What we know:
The structure holds 2 protein chains of 2 kinds.
Chain A: H1 2-5, H2 9-41, H3 55-82, H4 87-117, H5 125-146, H6 150-164, H7 167-177, H8 197-242
Chain B: H1 2-9, H2 14-57
Amino acid sequence: MMLTRLANPTRFMRLADRLLPWLAAATVLAFAAGLVWGLGFAPPDYQQGDTVRIMFVHVPAAWLAMFGYSFMAVASFVALVWKHPLADVAAKAAAPLGAGFCLIALITGSLWGEPMWGTWWVWDARLTSMLVLFFLYVGYIALWSAIDEPERAARAAAILALVGAVNVPIVKFSVDWWSTLHQPASVIRMDGPTIDASILWPLAINALAFQLYFVTVLLWRMKAELIGRRIRALTLGIAAREA
Amino acid sequence: MDDLAQFLAMGGYAAYVWPAFGTTFLVVIGLAVASWRRLKSAEARLALLEHSRPARRARPRTAA
């Protein structure tokens, strides 16, 4: 099965090295296209004017913030249940990325809310649950460095990722369950997107750019993590031989 | 010149649109640079370690 074939770090590293140049190039191209299209060619909204352009970074960042944590939860489950050697490396590598996107979503949302809602922040179900998601990310990252012994740190972090994962559907459906100032979903809906193609396309390109970026930097971070583990093993080996 | 000024004005919402894009690319580029440098320094340290290790094995085995 693909997952077990990838369990071997050297095979993973070889695959990552083959994919990375393409992923990096595609990321830069997608960002360039998304930025130029979103800022330059997409039409202003009849009500929101040019502030609608903030959607091209706010929405992809929010999607990636939720994708990141879901990715960490699945990886942590695989790590705990099947002891897959790369799973907790993947989860640990994804955390700072997800946290970064969560922060972007919160800040760009606030910058969009001030002109359009008349407020930088409101304790609304969507905004509050996204803030909780950010704290979960920070907690996850802090947990790794708080526990010295890697084995126990991995276990504790995996449990936090799994417990915190319940928050992702809460963020997603908060706009439907509670009456929120934040509007309900406009793209990922049962009856299809309600946005005009002229804005939906640049949004899709930007979402693709963010996703490609996530995978590219995730692979960098995973490689660094694996090399870090090899260094630790080597230094322990040398120390043992000298003792 | 007018086109550029009009573009930058963002329909009067420049104070919100540009900081939003600025924050995004600050975080995106910052994370990418930090992750890239982390990888490069790990690779360098590994090379250093692996370079020094074989020399140790080359020593002739003395009769224990």
